[in-house]
Structures are given as structure tokens and as C-alpha cells.
């Protein structure tokens, strides 16, 4: 089982969640999470903070199509490719390759706020494991 979540870093609330099997990659689920949030009309998405698991052209295209700024950490081996990469991905590669520390600390990007989503995710995993432990003890 794999859980994919989107967290509003201001409210620290989960705004979208999907459960899949372990074979579904994170980058495949981001467009579905975004679509669910947009349909709900409860939250307006200005930007997305995401780690390297979301570094794909499809993710950058989805975000651009929905007028969402992508603050996605690109992979270490990421390269600019004008023919195959989405323009926003190429710009991210250039920005991060030139000065990753500056990109990281930039107040506009605020990539460090990802810790909020990571904390929420840790809490979910902890509660799930705790409940699984309780259930296994009840069965014995």
C-alpha cells in the first residue's frame, strides 16, 4: 500500500489523498491530486513544493497547464533538453544547477517548507502502524 498526499503548508491540513499499490510512482499521482484539489474549489494552488520523485515532464506540464508554479527539486543528473523537456523543467534545472543553495533559500521558492508535508506524512504512517499493531494484538 502506498499513500500519496497533498498538504496545505499554511493550514497544515491534508487537501488531497490517494491510496494506491506500491507500483504507482509518485509522479503519476501528482496530476490526480492536483485535479482533485482544483475540482473541490476549496483551496487555490499557487505553487507546489515537491522532491525529486516528482521530477518529470508530465508533472511540470500538469502544473503549467493549471497555472501552478513548480518548485520541484530536480534529480542530480538532470539536464536541459530543449527538444524533450518542458520549458519549466529546463528552467528549474538551470536554476538549481547554477546555485542550488540560493534556489533552496530563496524566499519565493520556500522549498524548505516541504518539512510540513513530511511531518504530516510521518504522522499518518505512525498512526497506521500503531493501528496495525493494535489490530494484530487483538487477533492473537
Mean pLDDT: 84
Number of H/I helices? 5
Give the spatial strand order of the biggest sheet.
1-2
- Indicate the overall shape: globular
Model description:
This protein is an alpha+beta fold and 140 residues long. It has one domain (2-139). 49% of the residues lie in helices and 16% in strands. It is built from five helices and four strands, in the order ββαβαβααα. The chain has helices at 26-40, 57-65, 87-98, 100-105, 114-139, and strands spanning 2-8, 13-20, 47-50, 69-72. It has a two-stranded antiparallel ribbon. Helix 1 runs parallel beside helix 2. The mean pLDDT is 84.
Can you lay out the helices and strands and say which pair or pack?
Elements (H helix, E strand, L loop, with lengths): L1 E7 L4 E8 L5 H15 L6 E4 L6 H9 L3 E4 L14 H12 L1 H6 L8 H26 L1
Parallel strand pairs: 3-4
Antiparallel strand pairs: 1-2
Helix pairs in contact: 1-2
Keywords:
two-stranded parallel sheet; two-stranded antiparallel ribbon; alpha+beta; 16% strand
Brief summary:
With 140 residues, this protein is an alpha+beta fold.
